[in-house]
Amino acid sequence: MTRRTSTLVMIALGAFVTTLDNTIVAAGAPSIARDLALDLGTLQWVALGYMLPFAGLLLVAGTLIDRWGRRATLLGGLAAFGAGAAAGGFAETAWLLVAARVVQGMAAAFLVPGLLSMLRTNLDARGRTLGAAIWTACLAAALALGPAVGGILCASLGWSWIFFVNLPFVAAMLVLLPATTSRGRDPGGPRPATAPMVVVTASLVLLTAALVEPRAATTSPLLAAGIALGGAFLLRERHARTRLVPPELTKNRVFAGSLVVQLLWGLGVSGVFFFTPLLHQEFLGLGPVGAALPLVLVAVAVAAATPLVPRAVAAWGPHRTVGAGLAVVAAGLFALAAVNHVPAILPRTPGLVLIGAGSAFTVPLTSHALDVVAERHSGTASGLLTASRELSSALGVALIGAVLTAVRSMRLDAGAPAGTALAGGYTAGLLAAAGLTLGGALLAVRVLRAPPSETSSPRDKRAVP
């Protein structure tokens, strides 16, 4: 196998398994909750344990990869990812499972930028185009197959196998690693800003924990500590000689607005999807496979609508395209909320299709955000966008989970059956998600069409000596 082919296979495997590990857990969540006797708050940490360290370490990971060397970093990342997967599969307590997920999330934060950097170092221009297409296709495949694969594994082999299934991917990538990477490193490269990264990650963890924690006596200290650390990070960024986030990006209205739009979108959709298989099992009475399969409709709708996106951008511009896409997603969430009291799958189909089709039209959000930043900031901008996406997923699970749990508890206190109470909480979560997504749609139309004078466009490169 040539170096080019090995690189493309390595990229495909990495894109698929790091995304699959995020989506497959939602299908196994109901089974995990039953076997380990987890409440909703603890169950959320099975997902959050992966998402938060993944998001928090992405910005510093690129610098560390350069200092340590790509082969050493990927070798350590793959070993940690595999060890976390094995530990998760064998876990018999909630916090051992969450700890295993944290290890996997930390490893993924180094694997993703390390693998993406191969596009530049190992491939020519044509190969980079092919590699980027393969990466995107594998992401989409993992999103589509994750819930279904998770449901099948849970039904046939048990939930442990949603973690064990990672191990063949890790083994294959370890075999390919020597053929795709060298031992080179840059120990004299820039020192990573680890201190502010630790502070901001700790702030995010504490704020998320405050959302998940149901006891008011614990919520307040967590919230206060999270806000204090977040404030310390912002103060450091304002006065530091070298900022973690360059001021050219924070002052760029289009780029900063894109981060907020992406955050609103992720807050809405990610949380809803994590709890959907649980609703399908507890309220509709479906098994693990039947509960997860409806989510495949979303991925199918994404794939079907994607070819229409370039025409929409050409006709409407990226701001209207993204705004319309988010509005359609919000309509799908409202449609699900309107029929959620009906204990059947078929009435939910239009809403799921709308969510998928609308999501396809949000793709220009990332490309447009990168188009308006100078080339010298493209790496940092890419890391911020990826981190924002993962962070929004984590906070979405926590926020929608908090809404769902609060309404569910009120319904249970009023004497409603458990399934009906969960459905009421899920409806409230859908409405909250729809409101957030609609807010993102309105913001997209406004901020993504900022005039060129307010952006640090690629033309700024001429001013750089």
Automatic annotation (TrEMBL):
Identification of the protein by name: MFS transporter
Keyword entries, A-Z: Membrane, Transmembrane, Transmembrane helix, Transport
Transmembrane segments: 42-65, 72-91, 97-118, 130-153, 159-181, 193-212, 218-235, 255-279, 291-309, 321-339, 351-370, 391-410, 422-445
Compartments, as annotated in UniProt: Cell membrane
Gene3D superfamilies on file: MFS general substrate transporter like domains, Multidrug resistance protein D
Topology term for the membrane: Multi-pass membrane protein
Boundaries of every Major facilitator superfamily (MFS) profile domain copy: 7-452
